Amino acid sequence: MVKDLTSGSPVKLIIGFAVPLLAGMLFQQFYNFVDTMIVGRFLGVNALAGVGATGSLNFLVLGFCMGICAGFAIPVAQRFGAKEESRMREFVANGIWLSAAMALVITVLTVTYCRDILTLMNTPQDCIEESYKYIVVIFAGIPCTFLYNLLSGFLRSLGDSKTPLFFLVLSSLLNVALDLFLILVIPMGVTGAALATVISQGVSGMLCLFWIWKKFPILHINRQEARVQGARMAELCRYGVPMGLQYSITAIGSVILQTAVNSLGALAVAAVTAAAKVSMFLQCPFDALGSTMATYGAQNVGAAKYDRLNKGVFAASAMGIVYSLGALAVAYFFGKPLTGLFASGEGTAQMIEMAHMYLVVNVLFFPLLTLVNVVRFLIQGMGFSGFAVLAGVFEMIARSLAGMFLVPSLGFLGGALGSPLAWVLADAFLVPAYFRCRRVLMGRSHHGHVLVGHGAHDPAKNA
Fold first, then answer.
1. Which of 402, 390, 397, 393 is nearest to 362 (CA)?
2. Mean pLDDT of the chain
3. Is 2 domain-assigned?
4. What is the pLDDT of residue 458?
């Protein structure tokens, strides 16, 4: 079930690894898509705006959790690439201890303060109650988010991107069924939509746990390996915390931008929500390429095969740029009927026009998003998480500027330009940063330094 990405054609390996990831992400977006569609069509525009108004806050918190889990998987992939199985399992065990503690703390804090945060974000008064009912349940389900993302991350670290896909498909179908049941049969409103998401993610996490127990003896931890080790936790945090902060720092800009859009009213919020759902669906290939490059980079650095890094980044970038052209055609010709799926009744026609414009503006800049995902995740897999955090800072600055200046001056168009501006600034930093990181690794190799995966220090420390 494991997969070695350190030998063979990078193009074939990337495609073979990314396709199952892509399928899983498409299913994940599918149930998010259906979830939002059911809310908009059966509960109305205000309910849709209520769920949409929580989007950036959701990304801020859950993005941090998912980034932590993705970072915890990198040392596991590096030790797997270096054939150090016992040390790999020590990282798995300590990652589990850390995740359990973090899940508890984050859940308590977010559930306690989410209403105050929604108020600070200028959430429109006609949908703030819907926002609260939805997001408080999502935050209460944070342990389920940790469970699935941590275990699926461990599986992907060993090259198995197919199994998490199968479980995600099952949970997606469960999510849709629960949506219909909890919204239409048991009229729980937006609370039912949130509860369906939490339950389905918890089920997918438990399925990953069962699969690891039955099929992955390489991940079975003995008592010695399961002990708490400060050094292992410190190294996990060196990868996990920067990746979590990368998402959260990026999301801070999104929160500022969302706050500015909220000031335009519920119709604008609903339009952004509909466009964002379609855009996220179209962005799945970039997310799959990014996750693939994190594992690709980690395994090849662990095996000290630095010459394969350039081949991988060029192949993945070319795939993403070619795909961007097809995505633009879909957004332009089918954007209106797709965004129209999310609402009915008064204001729908105007919302669709606004959503279509927002969608096309974003998709025009997808080639830049390709580089953001491919290069940033590769850098993380190489062990230079600090650079990825700095890229997130640039994205935060760009979205913040859009929220503070573009939205007040350009209105809804200013909000649409927020993400493209973020990708421009991130790429301006990431592309030269990648070549800098690779030179550092190559220089150490030439001087005979022992690298990550062979018992040494984090390569990012002295970059």
1. 402
2. 84
3. no
4. 42
Total count of domains within the chain: 1
- Domain membership flag for residue 457: no
pLDDT lower than 70: segments of the chain:
1-4, 28, 31, 343-347, 444-463
Asked whether residue 462 is assigned to any structural domain, the reply reads: no
Range of the domain at 154: 10-446
384 part of a folded domain:
yes
13-40 residue pLDDT tens: 888 878 877 877 777 677 677 777 788 7
